[in-house]
Amino acid sequence: MLLLAWTAAASAQPYDLVLQGGRVIDPANGIAAVMDVAISGGKIARVAADIPGRDSRRVLSVKGLYVTPGLVDLHTHVYTRGRTATVTPDDAVLPHGVTTIVDAGVSGARNFDDFKATIIDRARTRVLALINIVAGGMNDDIAKEYIVADMDPAAAAAKIRQYPSILVGVKTAHFGPPGWIAVERAVAAGRLADVPVMLDSSVYSNSGRDTRTKVLEKMRPGDIHTHAYNDHQVEITSRFTGKVQPWMWEARKRGVLFDLGHGGGSFLWPVASAAMAGGFPPDTLGTDLHTGSILSLRVNVLNTMTKLMALGMSVEDAVARATVNPAKAIRRFPAIGTLGEGREADIAVFEMRQGVFALVDSIHKKLTATRNLAGVMTIRAGRIVFDRDGLSLESAGNSPSLAPLPRPGPAPPPEGDSGEIVFDLLLKNGTVIRPGRLTARLDIGISGGKVRRIAPSIPARFAKLAADLDGYYLTPGLIDARADVNNMDRPSAVTVDHHSLRHGVTAVVDPASTPAIVRRSRVRLIAGPRSPMPADALASGLDQTTALEGASLGRTMTLLLNQGVPFERIVARATRIPAAALPDFPNLGRLEANLPADLAVFEIVPGPATIPGPDRRRTRIAARVQCILTLRNGDVAWDLHGLTLREWTQAGGYGSYK
């Protein structure tokens, strides 16, 4: 009888999930209000105020959060067998509310089938693509993208007709020789297949090409000019007047679309600031996501939205440029880009954090902002695929317990060069934790990729750049004792650098590592120890599945901290202890003068919160371990707070003429 009663009650509930109390922004339907969103059978069932919780099998409160259609990234690079700079899609985009991406031309007509089989068909993210006009697609050997004979409009159009549900346009990029042949053949392919073309055509003064001709004569209405806010040949704004170029207004009027295409070289604060002040925002917020943009620049769609909001855009307008606008640009609206009833339930839930945040442009200059968007939950086709805080998980019922945090003792004798040398970077006033040695407040002088001096009170005048680490903990670079990171050969693997370096990890143990994946990674990859790794060595267990469940060495450290493990002991378990099992790498886990500068800097962020635990339960924490700075061989690979960066208004002139 109980089972029958439960079945009857369940059948009376028309919804699988209701998100209650969030601020819903759906520009396609003119919604910007506190409302509820109901999901049934993987589809949007209803968007309305005060949907009764009794009508749903499951109810989640998202009060205080934003709820929008799943975000759409029009410009990514995720075919990992193409260029080495590509990233794996799910772990790179789903945590940021992105449910649909477009790979921008990594594959061409000759290798698209492999891209589809190895990446697109396996991804939880909806992966669409632009076909490269070069049949072999993008290549680390850039000269292969110059081969005109490999640019066949008919072959590109035929491939689009073969896969019309996936291939949404044509891309040309990186063409170095003079002339318009690559652009003209890409446009010809777009005309044959009746799809838009995205142009990234290397417009330099030695190319025989110019932006005015490109946007007014070569491009058609609906074609997409990407990298809109770069500084190559002052494409958007005049260097002399700071005003938007008249031909840009004319191109927009005739229907040419402008994509941000942030990337590692195409978003500059003075250009973006002038364009936004002049009333010329981008139509879409493509990230140009690749290994050179995802880590140190922290580029994702929420990050690009945050940057434009810092320049005056409203959150509603930013959402439109990340949902309905790109959906229309690739002719997939209203299938995507909206919370319309009956549409697939792709949903982004994010928060607007208040505080002080460093937003970084493509030449590593920062704008200090007071708001920042961060992903909280992502739903793809009605299924929760990312849940940062474990809102959808059963509570672990735990009570966090923190050990006393490390306090610096007396400073030891100085180490390293005692002369008044010039350091590339001086890290001052950090609480230095070196397992097996006394914790002390010390300065670290770095030059030529190595630690040169460890001493208290090194004068800042001895350094080209000094960063104050008062209140932070400085440790050797961490070692992740187990992760699955060979994404060239294993579909289960993640892209290592952005998952590791942002958590202070500079070395990762993965038995599946090969010379090819080692060469393409900034993190030191180790194929495996001679002897078993100690049981108490810390490991993230990263792979494609666990990454979306919150796995990272940072989470592992946070969980231990909240179980009462002293922070110095946690650091030892991520440095000295795993290093002992790796005698072939004698410098690992050490912070000493004249050794490579692999370093990590952490802050302990107090405050109650919840995170997903490794047992897939919502775990309460009282404080969180957060990496704010990572150095690999002396180079800054991660700088969360912009401690080593200059404010763009104080950075001097910009320019990249060629």
Could you give the topology of this structure?
Blueprint: H1 2-11, E1 17-26, E2 31-40, E3 43-48, E4 59-61, E5 66-69, E6 71-76, H2 89-93, E7 98-108, H3 112-118, E8 126-132, H4 153-162, E9 167-173, H5 181-193, E10 197-200, H6 211-218, E11 224-225, H7 246-253, E12 257-258, H8 269-277, H9 291-294, H10 301-310, H11 315-322, H12 324-329, E13 347-360, E14 365-380, E15 383-387, E16 415-416, E17 425-432, E18 440-447, E19 450-455, E20 466-468, E21 473-476, E22 478-480, H13 496-500, E23 505-509, H14 515-519, E24 524-526, H15 544-548, H16 553-561, H17 567-573, H18 576-579, E25 599-612, E26 618-632, E27 635-639, E28 646-647
Helix pairs in contact: 4-5, 10-11
Task: Describe what this molecule looks like in 3D.
Helix content is about 20%, strand content about 30%. The chain is α/β, with parallel strands linked by helices and about 650 residues long. Among the domains are: about 70-370, TIM Barrel (Alpha-Beta Barrel); about 475-590 and about 605-625, no CATH class. Strand 2 and strand 3 (about 45-50) form a beta hairpin. Helix 10 runs antiparallel to helix 11. The chain is globular and about 70 Å long.
Pick out its properties.
single chain; nine-stranded mixed beta sheet; 658 residues; alpha/beta; disordered N terminus; TIM Barrel; 20% helix
Name of the CATH superfamily of the domain at 71-369: Metal-dependent hydrolases
State the helical fraction.
10-25%
Structural class: alpha/beta
Cα distance spanning the termini: 79 Å
The top level CATH class name of the domain at 71-369:
Alpha Beta
Radius of gyration (CA) equals 25 Å
CATH structural architecture of the domain at 71-369: Alpha-Beta Barrel
Largest sheet: 9 strands, mixed
Residue-averaged pLDDT:
93
Please indicate the percent range of residues in DSSP E strands (runs of 2 or more): 25-35%
Shape: globular
Q: Which fold does the CATH topology of the domain at 71-369 refer to?
A: TIM Barrel
Poorly predicted sequence stretches spanning 5 or more consecutive residues:
1-10
Count of beta strands: 28
Q: Give me the number of helical elements.
A: 18
